[in-house]
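Homework-ish question, so no full write-ups if that breaks the rules, but can someone show me the predicted structure for this set?
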Amino acid sequence: MPNLKSPLQVSGGPEQRRFLGDVDAMAGVHVEACYQCGKCSGGCPLSFAMDYQPRQIMRLIQMGLADEALASSTIWVCATCFTCTSRCPRDVDIAGVMDVLRVMARRRGIRPGDRNVGVFHRAFLSSIRRFGRSYELGLMIGYKLGTLRLTEDLPLGVRMLAKGKLAIFPAVAKGRKEVAAIFDEAEKGVAADAVKPAGAAGKGGK
Amino acid sequence: MTAETMRYAYYPGCSLHSTAREYDLSVKAVARAAGVELLEIPDWNCCGASSAHVTDPFLGFALPARTLAQGEEMGLDIMAPCAACYGRLMAAKEEAHRHPDFVRRFEAASGRRFSAKRPVLNVLEFLTAEKVAPAIGAAVKRPLSGLKVASYYGCLLVRPPKVTHFDDAERPVIMDRVLETIGATPVDFPFKTECCGASLGISRVDLVIELAARIVEAAKGAGAEAIAVACPLCQTNLDGRQAAAATKRRETFGLPVYYVTQLVGLALGLRPAALGLGRQTVDTMGLLRQKKLA
Amino acid sequence: MKRVGVFLCWCGSNIAGTVDVGKVAEQVRRLPGVVYVEENKYTCSEPGQASLIKAVKERKLDRVVVASCSPRLHEPTFRRTVEAAGLNPYFFEMANVREHCSWVHPDKETATPKAFDIVRKAVAKALRLEALSRGSIAIEKKALVVGGGIAGIQAALDIADAGHKVILLEREPTIGGRMAQLDKTFPTLDCSSCILTPKMVDAAKHPNITLYSYSELEKVEGYIGNFTVTIRKKARGVDEILCTGCGMCQTKCPIKVSSEFDEGMGQRKAIYSPFPQAVPNKPVIDRVNCTFYKTGKCKICEKFCEAKAIRFDQEDTILEEKVGAIVMATGFDLFDVTRYGEYGYGLYPNVITSMQLERLINASGPTEGKIKKPSDHEIPKSVAFILCVGSRDEQKGTTYCSRACCMYSIKHAMQYRDKVKDGRAYVFYMDIRTPGKSYEEFYKRAAVDYGVEFIRGRPSKIYGRGGKLIVKAEDTLLGRPIEVEVEMVVLAPAMVSRHDAAKMAQTLSVSYDGYGFLTEAHPKLRPVETNTAGIFLAGACQGPKDIPDTVAQASAAGAKVIGLLSHDTMATEPMIARVNEALCSGCLWCKPICPYKAIDGKTIQEKIAGKLVSRQVAAVNSGLCHGCGACTVACRDGAMNLAGFTNDQMLAEVDELLGWYDRPARSAD
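A: Not a homework solution, just the prediction itself:
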């Protein structure tokens, strides 16, 4: 628990529940139904590596503590394995909520709570956008430059090249322009959402 | 069985064309031996894996939808051996059913029609499909007797259960049954569906090493000599990181991680090279020779 | 000329808060037929009723309309009031301006004219009301109690002690139910059998109680005071009169089968009595597993029976009984925990249910009271108790809380710690629910005096590692993921309805909910009655509960039955269907429509054109008819009418609302 300077103030009007409403709308869930049983955190394979347990992320949302939730490493360490979702007794799609938080964090310009994971996803997507398919060698190079972990996994990479499992040149999809158009459409939607007046629940992408 | 019923639109996904080339080889070899035609979707694109859906919801559904739309155009059911791609395709279908707005937006952006009505099969559904299973069963030449294999299902074949509707999310058995059909001895163990870490395999290797350690250790503890998988990410994590995992646990593991189709192919009498055996990190051939299976 | 009095109720602010009652009164005054209008704050109160009676007498009213709440609440009240004022109680009509108006609309501007509409509709009907008189039916002074667990036994004893005859029906070979399976009961830790068996014997020996054990309820026909029930006495294969209960047959029988009473933790023979203190203490032959019925061989029990009581060719007998009241006390089953693949039940032998643990802890159980691991029969050095397995789970189980599991799991943990002094007991919970007397103190004793450890976190997975079991959960109070290694796990399954509860409910025409629990008439005020007159509920068949609540409910049901059987006759509502034989063509379309099988054909003789003609018409059994009105809709000739809701009364309401009468239109306000 962080050292707080004073107790958490819960007062004022329904605006403190706005974040909860936005998450609910975007994920199609009822986070307020969560009764904090802990079954999600108990089964999460990566909970040991998270700063907040998945259950605590639900609690942060319920209490309107958006900044803490969106800046957590939890949402980036989450592997979206859906174990939590499949076991939740209140039928909350927790993995879906994690996705929504990641999207929201990015849109609000909040740096990913796990830097390497953030770099990886950016590198992966820029590869897809260019070629329509994953160019793994290019992705690895981009990732290494982004994280400056230049020698990590070098032996594995070399082995894969030797076994013919890593292409030197990218495989380019014929329809890569169509793929790029999909990326453009996604970005258009985000910009449109950002322009929407206050009070509209973010429904990006649907 | 007419030729008509044994054709599928085939979606290899990015990994099967590179780091998981042996999976692609073995899937195609098994299909051929069973008389099934796999027609690769000519202009498939990356499903977006996890990176797309963690970044933007529309992107996360539209990328796999594009491939699905092409499969529909081919007029065939779609088979995707990569569990992650399978998971994304099923998610896109589910999204299309829940939110018709998404379909409209996708069709406008891509210029393609998308009905989300074509069945999508994962590799296990393919191997046990009504018309395919007997063909495989009939083609078994060399049952893998005495080979004790733990079936590792991973996450995305069985979860979320309301999307994939495949097997049991906590105690699946279909891969075990496939192994039985080819004469191997399936070994039950409690980590069949525990996550391997998926794409964290690159960005957080430390975590994947821990997860791989748990899974391999549990399989070995249950008496398995090998692990069967149906996903390239799972394979890379359990195979490529096994040595580091063993070091972390101060143990030796030495469990080869086979694609389930490689094992099926062996049982059908296909040559190891044709199945891409030998391209994996943990030695795959030693055990097979020891059991006189190759 | 009719003289209608209209009494408008404020109901405090319930009605007056949203309806301008004064304005409505003004408009009602102008309605044809209305000679008196009064407003009351609470018409149902004593002063309210007194005022009504006074008005009827002084103003010589012959029809009364009360505009207030739902008839479900106070129609009987006001009928009595009207009767006390000297009028036929059926010259009364109620206008619901609360549940149908003031409680569902927030706006006075629109609610007020609607309230006026409701009242004028009621006045239009009131002008056409007929005098009706109640019927009377005889009451059979005998009760049937279905289920011989503690609920059934208690209800039967209470009714029998009041001097009425009772049939106690139990499907198992012995009465005693679930309580007989238990070792000790919370919070006193009384020995369950010690407090149960005296009551079992009382019930068996009571001069007013006839016990049919190993019997099933096949059919129920009739109505309150006059039920005809068909009972199937299943063949035990043993002559109950000759059998001395010596038990030799059970000792000698070579066939061993998993014991249902021991929840699969022990075995019984093919000829068996479920437990030593069974009542009646006569065995039963399990024809599915008995060698004789499979191959014609063996017959060892017959050979050794000194009383010559074995009867292999015995058959089921069917008998009919007439009763006036029925109490349902059929109990509960436990949730099938194999649905939780993540908990490993069925995969790991040392993962068991709480009821299985009861059988182990019970001194007369399969392990003579020692808690032994099924895997190797050693005493476990650590046990985890998992609450809410199936309960409070919308995704895989039931939504509700099963009420008794917190307490009995704490009890189990205490018992384990008492027997295994250096053992560790962990209770994994979401909430600890201790609503009863001395329950919270019991919880504290467990932690302080017995060293039970409580971990707040619903486990996500239980798996085996190195011969032990790992419980994977989050300690939510610490906020950390934990893995607890134990040697045994006890799951607390949800209490669910019996697997055939729905079928049983349909046999009785009693409502049941989505979970198969039988539905009470009102959740707060009528917890032991059903919506089927004459059928009452007791115990867990109505919903999960513990023993104190079960016994209380059983006595309550008993009291209701005693009240019913204390009369020789009872009045019946006259609002039932009646046939205008002159119009009836005898097509009998109404007959299959009637859900209560209250309509049949009858032959009448009429003089037509000088000749005596026999023809068929429909006839309504006034005892069975519930006045639902379905037949009146089906009747093509308009011959069927519902007293109190006749066709012309209903049409008058419609005409009034649509304003077809030649009257000055009412103003827009």
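Now go work out the reasoning yourself. Hint: The radius of gyration of chain A is 20 Å.
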